[in-house]
Amino acid sequence: MNFIITILILFIMLGLIISIHEFGHFIAAKKSGVYVEEFSLGMGPLIKQFKPKKSETKYSLRAFPIGGYVAMAEREMKGSKIKKDRVLENKGFLKNLWVMANGIIFNCFLAILLFFISGLLYGKPISEVKIGEVIEGKAAYNAGLEAGDKILEINGVEIETWDDFTLEASAKKLQKEYVFKVEKPDGKVESYKVVPEVVKENGEEIRVFGIKSSGTTFKKGFGSAVSYAFTGFYETTTTIFKILGSLFTGDVSIKNLSGPVGIYSVVDQVKSQGIQTLIYLTAYLSINVAIINLVPIPVFDGGRILILAIEKITKKRASEDLELKLNYIGFGIMILLFVFITFNDIIRLVVK
Predict the structure, then answer these.
(1) CA pair distance 286, 108, nearest whole angstrom
(2) How would DSSP label each residue in 4-41?
(3) Do residues 277 and 270 make contact, with C-beta atoms less than 8 angstroms apart?
(4) What is the pLDDT of residues 252-288, one digit of tens each?
(5) Average of pLDDT values for 134-157?
(6) I need a labelling partner for 79 at 20 to 30 A (CA). Which of 98, 233, 254, 261 fits?
(7) How distant, in Å, are the alpha carbons of 93, 125, 127, 264, 314 from that of 309?
(8) Contact call for residues 291 and 237 (beta carbons, < 8 A)
(9) So what's the pLDDT on residue 241?
């Protein structure tokens, strides 16, 4: 029963994120006058399809909630009955850009809306990166850190949120020691060298510093909800970009990435924490989808935008054959990465 509940929650979350992304493409195409043959949620075998009267578009629901698509007239085809002015490539640079980027924009809108709803229901979370408790005998205690200390930097990197702390102290490569720069309750700034205890948990090495957060307070009200809509979006987006930057520099291992199996595991762990956590996770994943689609490789929206930009600069259209080859390469890269990430997700579950 627990498995079914987790799967249903995951399907609802992914379904919402994917449908909003594809709807962004769909509405931009429709508003631009592009012919849309099919709007599909999910990939693979068809489950349900309907076509409203006087509509040119078929609406489909498919078996696997790992994607979706908007089948539109993107290029002129010989013998096609579709009018030239309803083909995407004939709509000009700005309308092409809007159609390709609107899925990303809608995912950002979704995240902002979810943060607003969370702020309206539960309040805007306010939490300083302040130590609430230092566990006696552990690394932080032995180094001299105390409850009430506000963490300013770790190893020279500025810490503004607990996500920053987690990235620097737990996600990046293990360091021999961690230099904590903190502000004491009396305003003095001190530095402490902390050597964490490393323990094995579920087959992974976990660093134990022995500190706990001072907790989070919530400020309610419409104004606070509006504020959280944008600050939540900004802080989460910034955190994701920091993680991506650390992946490129090698400070964070690619093994830390999660696919659908890993996301299932996260949902299974946090669903007992309530709707607020699930709303945050959905917003976080929506921003992830937006950022991933910015990656300038074919298959993702970013790749198509890059080709469009090159065409604009060179004033030459890329050949259909070249686009097809690039799409195959991009799809191959995506599949390899998906398999690698899923394999690591399964290994983590099995080790548990």
Answers:
(1) 7
(2) HHHHHHHHHHHHHHHHHHHHHHHHHHHHTT--EEEEEE
(3) yes
(4) 666 666 666 567 677 777 777 888 989 999 999 899 8
(5) 92
(6) 98
(7) 8, 40, 42, 37, 9
(8) yes
(9) 86
